[in-house]
Amino acid sequence: MGSLDPPKAESNYSNAAGKSDAIHKSTGDDGDPPVHKEMTMEYDSLKKRKTSMLPLEVGTNVMCRWRDNKYHPVKVIERRKLPYTAPNDYEYYVHYTEFNRRLDEWVKLEQLDLDSVQAVVDEKVEDKVTSLKMTRHQKRKIDETHIEGGHEELDAASLREHEEFTKVKNIATIELGRYEIETWYFSPFPPEYNDCLKLYFCEFCLNFMKRKEQLQRHMRKCDLKHPPGDEIYRSGTLSMFEVDGKKNKVYGQNLCYLAKLFLDHKTLYYDVDLFLFYVLCECDDRGCHMVGYFSKEKHSEESYNLACILTLPPYQRKGYGKFLIAFSYELSKKEGKVGTPERPLSDLGLLSYRGYWTRVLLDILKKHKANISIKELSDMTAIKADDILTTLQGLELIQYRKGQHVICADPKVLDRHLKAAGRGGLEVDVSKLIWTPYKEQG
Ligand SMILES: [Zn+2]
Questions:
Q1: Collapsed DSSP state (helix, strand, coil) of residue 44
Q2: Which CATH number do you get for residue 60?
Q3: Where is the domain boundary, 139, 167, 195?
Q4: pLDDT tens-digit readout, 290-345
Q5: What distance in Å separates the CA atoms of residue 190 and residue 76, rounded to the nearest whole number?
Q6: CA-wise closest residue to 95 among 162, 33, 180
Q7: Which of 203, 270, 276 is nearest to 245 (CA)?
Q8: What three-state secondary structure class fits 63?
Q9: What SS3 state is found at 312?
Q10: What is the largest CA-CA distance in the chain?
Q11: Residue of 80, 127, 131, 442 with fewest CB within 10 Å of its CB?
């Protein structure tokens, strides 16, 4: 799972997400009647009926006017009463069912089209199905309990998953180094941070504080100027640090809290011992500033070479996401293993991976005039054969002949796909990577 460089089409959303407040004001108070409103003789009784459905229940499906001034289907996730107002004056936290959850937001009643209200569906059934589809954690649980035997545990897990999935964003912004960053998702900070809308992070040790003065005091005595761990790569101003979650438990946990603010599905918070964190930094005379990271299990039976991946929003769209992916495969090559990212991948993560796989595989296919097998491609790239197959199938470069998958690639078709995939940007210079694969000490 991961959050990487957003594609162009999406960028309008995520950029605009930061301005939701201003948009609230401009769309909430202009008094435009909802477009579906029927001006009939029964208007009064209609009005009465609408009033009787207020406040809307959590779980209600309704149309909501978004910042594009169009109506989109939403589901009410949470509601809260506005202070000093009439009894039915509530704000609603909604999820736009067509959009990514990072766009979930508080909206005013005026934005909702009450004519479109649908009855609350049976949440339990629906959400169980969704959560079964959504997470690897769940799949693992099902495998372990063989479904028939383990209903109880499954229900508890579904419930937890559901709670997680419907969480309202808690921290709105963070300060990290030179940046103030708007967050995207809920993150389970300890209860004493429940009343905070903003958190102040030390950009080096990732300790977080409630108040600016606390951070300033901390910065005077914090002696870290880079992530705790070994610098395993340096090229120009870019450095990669390998942090062992067991040796740097607090750092690992802080990183997970921070990352969750920008990752929708992420289940790892406390068991950081089993992971290595690869933290990418831009370095200058003030220190090494984290731009993103990926985590990796020390031992993965499923040949995962990456667990979570994130480029922090201020550094997105600069090629760092692709750099991190490429880096994870360079580590796999050094280990002499093939690797694959842990699922589910986020929407942005999947896009970045598809782009990476397409570029790497098609470059090789071009050089070898497609005269190469999937196994050979996998050996050369450390990309798992399944991922190669799905990528090439998606590009319609695979045919099934006499019980075998055969790569069929017209050079013109390759060029067209390569052009569409764009360039990788930042390359990993393997000669600058000084690293030996992880081995348990002792
Ligand atoms: Zn610090």
A1: helix
A2: 2.30.30.140
A3: 167
A4: 999 999 999 999 999 999 999 999 999 899 999 999 999 999 999 999 999 998 88
A5: 26
A6: 162
A7: 276
A8: strand
A9: coil
A10: 84
A11: 442
Residue 279's nearest CA partner among 265, 259, 264, 302 is 259
Provide the token pair at 321.
Answer: 């996401």
- Residue 112 CA to ligand 1 center (angstroms) comes to 44
Please work out, in degrees rounded to the nearest 5, the angle formed at the alpha carbon of residue 169 by the alpha carbons of 294 and 210. Answer: 80
d(CA 148, CA 40): 55
Indicate the number of domains in the chain.
2
Which structural domain range is residue 77 located in? 55-118+160-167
Report which of 356, 341, 156 is spatially closest to residue 263, judged by C-alpha positions.
341
Q: How far apart are CA 98 and CA 13, in angstroms?
A: 12
In a domain, 389, yes or no: yes
Q: What is the CATH number of the domain that holds 410?
A: 1.10.10.10
Q: How far apart are CA 325 and CA 144, in angstroms?
A: 30
CA atoms within 13 A on the CB side of 438: 20
- Domain assignment present for residue 46? The answer is no
Which of 11-15, 34-38, 84-88, 126-130 has the weakest average pLDDT? Answer: 11-15
Last residue of a domain, one of 108, 136, 167: 167
Peptide bond into 344 cis (omega under 30): yes
Query: Cis (ω within 30 of 0) for the bond into 55?
Result: yes
Strands 287-297 and 275-284, bridge-based pairing: antiparallel
108's enclosing H/E stretch is: strand 105-108
pTM (2 d.p.):
0.75
Residues belonging to the active site: 342
Distance of alpha carbon 277 from alpha carbon 262, whole angstroms: 17
DSSP category for residue 433: B
User: Do the domain assignments include residue 78?
Assistant: yes
Q: Please provide the DSSP assignment of 166-234 as one string.
A: TPPP---EEEETTEEEE--S-----GGGTT-SEEEE-TTT--EESSHHHHHHHHHH---SS-SSEEEEE
Dist. CA 203 → ligand 1 center (Å)? 7
Band of residue 2 on the pLDDT scale cut at 50, 70, 90: low
CA of 421 to the centre of ligand 1 (A): 39
Question: Which residues are registered as beta bridge partners of 62?
Answer: 74
- Would 64 be classed as within a structural domain? yes
Q: Measure the CA–CA gap between 95 and 110, rounded to whole angstroms.
A: 16
Estimate to the nearest angstrom the gap between the alpha carbon of 115 and the chain centroid.
34
How far, in Å, is the centroid of ligand 1 from the Cα of 201? Answer: 8
Rounded distance from Cα 212 to ligand 1 centre (Å): 13
Rounded CA separation 352/228 (Å): 28
Q: How far is the CA of 215 from the centre of ligand 1 (A)?
A: 8
